[in-house]
From TrEMBL:
UniProt cross-references to InterPro entries, sorted A to Z: Methyltransf_25 (IPR041698), SAM-dependent_MTases_sf (IPR029063)
Domain Methyltransferase: 46-143
Domain of life: Bacteria
Keywords for this protein: Methyltransferase, Transferase
CDD domains per the UniProt record, alphabetical: AdoMet_MTases
GO BP terms: methylation
PANTHER family hit by this protein: TRANS-ACONITATE 2-METHYLTRANSFERASE, TRANS-ACONITATE 2-METHYLTRANSFERASE-RELATED
Protein name (Swiss-Prot/TrEMBL): Methyltransferase domain-containing protein
GO molecular function: methyltransferase activity
Native source organism of the sequence: Nonomuraea pusilla
Amino acid sequence: MLTHDAALRWIARWDRQQEGYLPDREERFTALIDAVEALGRPDPLVIDLGCGPGSLAARLLERLPKATVVAVDADPLLIGLGRAAYPHVTFVPADLRTPGWTEALGLDRPADAAVSTTALHWISPEDLERVFVEVARVLRPGGVLLNGDHMETGDATPELARLELAVHARQTERAFGANPPEDWRAWWDAITADPDFAALDAERSTAGAAHHGSESRLLSQHVHALREAGFKEVGTLWQRGHNRLLCAVRG
């Protein structure tokens, strides 16, 4: 049986490997939660898209303890980790690419914000637009979608894109030098080798939750999908290199 303490240890290890790709991950978390706080409600209703084991949800509730966070992910193992570690978060197993996934959220009012971090790039541009249409349906007017991810601009501004990648590479070098944390694949190899996760890993294989590469890596793909979904304003709130926090406001 997965214990609370064991789940926290695995999530701490998850956070560390994520920092290998995002040395300024905590700074981006802070900027995202600043934006949620600036909406003005002490008790916002927030949907966490592609939540993983709940790292963002947990930080959001530390800052805004009266918030309600509904966290959605298609991966049974990550959902299992999150439920064991963060019982105050509502975790919902759902695939964002499946039409009607918002019906499983059990919302009792329109959401104030939908948030995501390092997750939506796994979704194809075609599916991304459908995801944003679903999100827009459950957001209140003036509600926001906040998406922190690597988004490149090479299709529109190739020289700027080269410099953005260089800024990110130098930040990573300063943070880790020759000793980077374990990578994403090594973390997954380790956790799926742990007998405590055998059942969740089997469920994961059945659910087809594994990722197969980045599909929406361009900023333009996200902006286009958001505008097509009816968001009235789209812009970057925070950025370092090609790592940015994109914000979209529902009309």
